[in-house]
């Protein structure tokens, strides 16, 4: 670890101790080396012992920076895994992180756009509408059409803080991979590198603008998800301008119920939106914490989701989608044998894994969760049990699926808050069956032909020439193959002759040495040794000839 990484590590430890996080750990889980190390840092004292435990954790995350804030945001959606007081405090991290100075935001916007704010916008409000871990937003109006907008601006100097944390995480991941052999299946270095790419991409608001435009296009005309319009001509790396929306935060259950929202349909559409993004579009919003999700006030009986902050998106290739869909359907149908086989076939577990043992282990973990409403299922506990099972079978973490796993946790957390009785499995199963039906069978063949038809029609006039060229190349390659085969046969023949001569020479050498020990046969011995030299010379020449 470099001096800068040690400095950042010390800063993290200092913040945790000054917020009294160590006091939240029960004594039975504090080994004596840990207690001794804490006493040795006597100058780092708990600064506010009167604070609640939830506030301590929240303030520690805020002080530690954006990476820890995002971790807190994810935890805040899992109220089934956290006590209510901690979950409520962490929920404040979703859009109420302490803001930075509005004047600094104005200067950064003007520097990025290359002109005074008043040139493009009216009614710019220096008081931020919301503030998050990496950026904050300010309201204004577009001068060209008087539309209400929000301007998102990156926090000053945030990239240096993130880079320092990422370097520390990388160093720690390498240490874990080197000194803890059992961590190999978790692939800590690869996971950190995947997270590095994700978090650094989020610092480029031009990328977020492109993501939002793509997501908006994917759901044009949809009654399930609305993505605000992006004004790309005014977007820069550190500034994003988009339509202002008025919705109800998805975490405000009381407001949703007061508005008459159909909570069951809203929860089901959340599941539908997620699976549509993953399996239809291979392009999904991967930061779906409650601070980024709203519900339209209009038509509460036919609720519409509104998604913002598309800085983190995930993509899956065709093979990963296929394996995931088949795994999901096998789970829903309780076909644990199929689940085990798919894991082996995809390479997620070693090829020598005993499928029957793996099947039994998966059955033991998953069978108890079916036929229960969502309110009675703790997927956090299920995941822990699955990880323990995976450890037994040396299952490796798939870095390309980490974002998907995180988004699944978000979706489940939202579903639990909105409609605890939602049957996640039955909601998702028809969608997956329909998708799989389009990927295999006659319909899939027809769709492939339909999609490729324009390309084939374009290439049809070239078909005779392509056939002729293929036949000509095949004939040429056959001649080359015949020539190589003749050379190979000749080479083998010469090598065989060389080995024969070397063997005869070795035999003559043994005979010659024996004859030289007999006085009456010394002349014959000398002749044998001469024959040895001659055979070896001829053998060497044969071996060198090809």
UniProtKB/TrEMBL annotation:
It is a multi-pass membrane protein. Residues 93-343 form the ABC1 atypical kinase-like domain. It comes from the Bacteria. Belongs to the ABC1 family. UbiB subfamily. Belongs to the protein kinase superfamily. ADCK protein kinase family. The chain crosses the membrane at residues 498-516, 522-541. The active site is at 287 (proton acceptor). SUPFAM superfamilies: Protein kinase-like (PK-like). The keyword DNA-binding does not apply. Is probably a protein kinase regulator of UbiI activity which is involved in aerobic coenzyme Q (ubiquinone) biosynthesis. It is found in: Cell membrane. Keywords: ATP-binding, Cell inner membrane, Cell membrane, Kinase, Membrane, Nucleotide-binding, Transferase, Transmembrane, Transmembrane helix, Ubiquinone, Ubiquinone biosynthesis. Its EC number is 2.7.-.-. The keyword Cell membrane applies. NCBIfam families: PRK04750.1 (NF003404), UbiB (TIGR01982). ATP binds at residues 129-137, 152. This is Probable protein kinase UbiB. Pathway: Cofactor biosynthesis; ubiquinone biosynthesis [regulation].
